[in-house]
Design brief:
Layout (H helix, E strand, L loop, with lengths): L4 E5 L8 E6 L2 E5 L5 E6 L5 E9 L2 E9 L4 E9 H4 L3 H20 L5 E3 L3 H27 L4 H24 L7 E3 L1 H10 L1
Parallel strand pairs: 5-8
Antiparallel strand pairs: 1-2, 2-3, 3-4, 5-6, 6-7, 8-9
């Protein structure tokens, strides 16, 4: 029996750390007071998903695990320039790498999906449809309300750009696009090399 491995991870700058414990083939999440929030047997994991996204100065990374009865996540949100490479970032990286290595040992054939989550991709597709529909409806509405030719031309460029953005969202986040299967070792290399 190996000694339990513990990782204290701050999910965000103002949140209390959560402790992830790997012991006896299970991953346990504890709150700041040591109370167990959840437990998942690594041999029972049926799905793993890794995502890392940047928006402006922030970086959000999430490792999601599912075992058929529950969905759990190890996540962290950082302001990238200020905190990347710091102790909170390094603790998160070590935790994710350790969990993925333990998952490889428990289930050598399980791959990790990466890319946008299904919910995010669906939301972006809906946004793409709305933008494209608005861009297609705008000229019809302009003609129906009697807009003069100059107003129609002035709005033509922004409306066209909105339509192109909607089309790009639809194409980029079409079902099955942008998601790929990777081995846990590939994700570990990404996490440790960031």
């Amino acid at each position: 029996m190996r000694k339990p491995r513990r990782h204290a991870v701050k999910p965000a700058l103002i949140k209390s750390p959560l402790t992830y414990v790997l012991a006896d083939g299970a991953l346990v999440c504890e709150d700041a007071k040591g109370g167990t929030l959840w437990r998942m047997e690594l041999a029972a994991v049926t799905f793993a998903h890794w995502s890392a996204s940047r928006a402006g100065q922030s970086l959000t990374r999430v490792l999601r695990l599912e075992d058929g009865t529950q969905r759990r996540a190890i996540r962290q949100h950082l302001y990238r320039r200020a905190l990347v490479g710091g102790p909170d970032d390094m603790a998160f990286r070590a935790c994710v790498a350790d969990v993925l290595r333990a998952l490889m040992a428990a289930q050598p054939g399980l791959d990790v999906e990466s890319g946008p989550s299904a919910g995010t991709a669906a939301a972006l597709r809906v946004l793409g449809v709305a933008l494209l529909a608005g861009a297609l409806a705008a000229p019809v509405l302009a003609l129906a309300t009697g807009q003069d030719l100059m107003a129609f031309v002035n709005w033509g460029i922004p409306v066209t750009l909105i339509g192109l953005l909607g089309l790009a969202l639809l194409r980029t986040y079409a079902p099955g696009r942008g998601r790929r299967q990777r081995t846990p070792a590939e994700v570990v290399a990404e996490v440790e090399g960031v």
